[in-house]
Amino acid sequence: MIERWYDLLDEIDGFIAENKDHLIKRNLDRLRAVSLMGLIIFILGMSMSYIILLNFRFNRSYLGILGVLIVYHVLAIRKYDSILNNKVFAKAFTLSFYVLALMGLLWIDMTLTPQSPPIWFCIGLVALSACYIDRFHVLLLLEVVMGVFGCAVINHYDNIKGVNIDCLSIMGAIMLFGSCYMMNLNLQADTGSDTRAIKQKSVTDLLTGLLNKIAFEDSCRNFLENRTTEMGCALIILDFDNFKSVNDNYGHQVGDEVLKHFGEILHESFRVNDIIGRVGGDEFMAMVTGSVPINGITKRCENILHELAICHIGGSDGFSCSIGIAIDEREAGSDFAQLYAAADQALYRAKENGKAQFQLEHLTD
After folding, report:
1. pLDDT tens, 170-198?
2. Structural domain of 17
3. CA dist 115 → 57, 154, 172 (Å)
């Protein structure tokens, strides 16, 4: 049971680390909503108390609570971008709001219903799990500190020593907070997984699992724009030979299996940091990132041709592809359009020379 809790906390910590910037923004957005809701509830609550409770007297100290809600709400709206630009300040700003909010709820309990348990304070402790997302130990520490503070203030105010019903209520609220925190983070993680899955589908070719055309070109351009001058690269275009005949003779299902297997061959032939994509029906591309010897690139292409030639799928065999390779040897580096034009020219020569081969094109100064 304890190991399961540790595993769950590790998963939650991983989720928070992965989505840190998003969660900071979410916490600030939630602060804006909570402060506005707090203003509405506070004004309505005071108004209803004045109407319903004949002996109700407005405590001037409540103006301080009202002021905190207004100030934080206005700052969260007017200085939204400035706060988000400083992640540490954004976190401190949000946490300080909830600390002050909890202190305000405690004061309302003590002045409005002094003979009853601190209901509003306990509700605030539990609700914090839904309002603010951070690592469990950070929020647990905040809960414990605020709980001890609440018990100390109540006992001092009531002049009662020892554990009483108020402190037990606060302890129960902290325990309930832990359960709510786990459920909330699990829900957030599941939502995040769904979002990542959708995003993954938007950049991935569903048949082969490689990048689609747009994602491949964007990744290549991003690499080319950020690479250092000494970092070389090569762009490779791979065009399946006579693929139409595979579909015509064996059916589209076999054709899809062939393309899927071709994608697997490419995935195994290149490194993790290389960029691979399916950019057309039977056309694939790969960008070798970093300085790689030319014979290393040609050996990969020879291996691809060999693996295609020996595979058997659905009664069909003897596959081949034509490959055009553009090697960037320019000191300043080439852009994607220049690399593509050179690789396409090399591909054209490979097809003209009988297919099932690769041709090289060097981009030099």
Report:
1. 888 888 887 787 776 666 555 554 445 44
2. 2-202
3. 16, 11, 19
